[in-house]
Design a protein that fits this description.
One of its GO terms (cellular component) is membrane. Keywords: Membrane, Transmembrane, Transmembrane helix. By secondary structure, this protein is mainly alpha-helical. It folds into two domains: about 270 residues, no CATH class; about 35 residues. Helices cover about 55% and strands about 5% of the residues. The mean pLDDT is about 95.
């Protein structure tokens, strides 16, 4: 398939889509009903449906009985960690194998024309982005994911979280399930801005940003503090009228849902003539420029706070103008402090 029908490639081999990144039409005013109806299938297919089905599968076949979860024990906790680890290995590994090992679509639709395996760096353990990312995913990411999952299931089993039944509260739970992605977006934007503050960026978030050219295993390659903040999205269900299955969906949206934003390709080729959008461009631009697109564009929070970059020349100009204004402000502050020091 010719990716130049959908975008352009520069001299370095980096690909960019013809159309700039867009925010979802959910929060536009006045409401645009036609745009919402056109966009709505993308809210469910394919990614959100995959994460919801995986949560249902967990509840049906993996999660132990309520009586078991009332007591923390090594047996069911270790089993849950093993299942999470295997699921991550298979899901993340499938994208890694298809796109980065076998390179079945070569660099078609790939934002950064280079592959991480081609670039060694001292920023990573063993100078390997892939090995570093894999180790951080399993040694910290899956462990903290499981710890949050266990804690929430234990809270439900012991009556510390509001557990509504589907038979008695179908509409309430349907509404909560529908806003799971919105909860994730709000939470992700808030913690993302927090860990971009200088101290937390240096000691925590820089681990994730070492992967300037992200690949599937970069998705959960984070510092343990960031893992805890990231999977903390499940804690909203301690106060929401919810259900353990929806809480699992929230966790799976975070855990498995990190893949599309870091897959490194705009579209994944399925067979010879089918494409699946990753919707990763906005987050790729965050990895490229660091100080834009703190959210994933479901809620236009970056537009509201002036940090949106859609990949267009206009977006680039706006970003450079923000940098210029900040540089002038810092220079003025430095000059003022120096003047005050000289006066003393």
């Amino acid at each position: 398939m010719d990716d130049l029908n959908f975008g352009k490639r520069n001299k370095r081999g980096d690909w960019a889509p013809n159309q700039p990144a867009e925010t979802a039409p959910l929060f536009t005013f006045p409401p645009q009903l036609a745009a919402i109806l056109k966009w709505l299938p993308h809210y469910f297919l394919p990614w959100n449906l995959i994460f919801a089905v995986s949560a249902l599968a967990y509840w049906a076949w993996i999660i132990p009985p309520v009586e078991t979860m009332q007591t923390l024990s090594l047996g069911w906790i270790s089993r849950l960690y093993a299942v999470n680890a295997i699921a991550v290995f298979l899901f993340y590994g499938a994208f890694e194998l298809h796109l980065y090992v076998l390179k079945r679509q070569e660099n078609r639709f790939k934002y950064n024309g280079k592959f991480p395996a081609e670039q060694k760096s001292n920023a990573f353990w063993f100078q390997s982005q892939n090995l570093d990312n894999i180790l951080r995913t399993f040694l910290s990411g899956v462990m903290i994911w499981t710890a949050v999952e266990v804690g929430m299931l234990w809270a439900y089993a012991n009556g510390y979280a509001p557990w509504l039944g589907f038979a008695e509260n179908p509409w309430t739970l349907a509404c909560v399930a529908l806003v799971v992605p919105i909860i994730h977006e709000f939470h992700f934007f808030c913690i993302h801005r927090l860990i971009h503050t200088p101290f937390l960026y240096k000691w925590v978030h820089s681990v994730h940003h070492n992967s300037v050219n992200p690949s599937p295993w970069s998705s959960l390659s984070m510092h343990p503090v960031e893992h805890l903040l990231y999977f903390g999205t499940a804690f909203y269900h301690l106060i929401l009228p919810s259900n353990p299955m929806i809480m699992l969906y929230q966790l799976h949206y975070a855990g498995f849902g990190a893949i599309p934003g870091h897959v490194g390709f705009d579209k994944v080729e399925i067979g010879k003539d089918r494409l699946v959008d990753s919707h990763a461009y906005a987050h790729y631009l965050h990895h490229k420029y660091f100080e834009v697109n703190y959210g994933d564009a479901l809620i236009p929070l970056d537009k509201w706070f002036g940090t949106w970059h859609d990949g267009s020349p206009e977006g680039e100009a706006q970003m450079q103008e923000r940098y210029r204004r900040r540089k002038e402000k810092l220079a003025a502050r430095k000059a003022r402090l120096e003047a005050e020091g000289a006066a003393e």
